[in-house]
Amino acid sequence: MKKIIILALLFLTVSFDTQRQSAFDVGEWFKFRIHYGLVTAGYATLEVKEATKNNKKVYHAIGRGYTTGMSKWFFKVEDNYESYFDKVTGKPYQYVRKIDEGGYTKNQEGFFNQDKNTILVKDYKNDTSKNFTTSENVQDIISTFYYLRNHPTVDKLKVGESIAVDMFFDDESTKFKLKFIGREDLDTKFGTVPCMIFRPLVQSGRVFKEEESLTVWISDDENKIPLRIKASLAVGSIKADLESFKGLANPFTIKVK
């Protein structure tokens, strides 16, 4: 189950346009149940708070993932991801990555210099610091969620088209792509919700069957709420469903309660 909760957090969202109502605001909170069929493997949460960086108010997003029940005995996961990013531009100032996945641990902070296109990564586990060169407008793993939720082209994509974002993760910049699959009504515990469907392009191999093994359902309204993720693994499949939420910035569109 290694990486599954991280990947669930990574591929949860999609839409950044300062000309319209923002898809989120301070106080938004999501909880997701990660499961194999009826068996709950763990939970993941995403929350938006407010903080101060460089004498200005910024968003402070926190993502947590953890295993539960029998899954915790077989493979314990306790992950914490945080990002501080600008309220207007969406550019990150700092990220936190503190994880424990079956004994595999990391304890890092990254500090972005967007003017110089660099990031200083402090590794507290190994007591090291290193500067990396990044591309322009690079995002971290958590700020990517929120940047994409307000992306100006998300509502204009045609089936088969993609959105690409430069993202810094695991000490390197990578191109993160989301491919638009289409629209459908999704039955959820909250009712029937009109959704957009995306497939994040992931690396095939040990964990995933192929590049397009992840499918994500996002509410087709101003919130762009992540409602479901389905991952086809090398062995079996796993889902993450929205369990509860609060603090939405906009009305939630539900066709049938």
- Shape category: globular
Strand and helix order: HEEEHEEEEEHEEEEEE
Low-confidence stretches: 1-7, 11-19, 203-210
Task: Give the distance, in angstroms, between the N- and C-terminal Cα atoms.
Answer: 34 Å
What integer value in Å does the Rg equal?
Answer: 18 Å
- What percent strand? over 45%
Mean pLDDT: 86
Number of alpha- plus pi-helical segments:
3
Please identify the structural class as seen in this structure.
Answer: mainly beta
Strand order within the widest beta sheet: 8-7-6-5-4-3-2-1-14-13-12-11-10-9
Q: Biggest β-sheet, characterized?
A: 14 strands, antiparallel
Estimate percent helicity.
under 10%
For the secondary structure, the number of strands is: 14
Describe it.
It is a single chain. The protein has a 14-stranded antiparallel β-sheet with strand order 8-7-6-5-4-3-2-1-14-13-12-11-10-9. It is built from 3 helices and 14 strands. With 257 residues, it is mostly beta strands. The chain is globular, with a radius of gyration of 18 Å. The chain has helices spanning 4-10, 69-74, 143-148; strands at residues 29-36, 39-53, 56-67, 77-86, 92-101, 104-113, 118-123, 128-133, 162-169, 172-188, 191-200, 214-219, 226-232, 237-246. A hairpin with a 6-residue loop joins strand 12 (214-219) and strand 13.
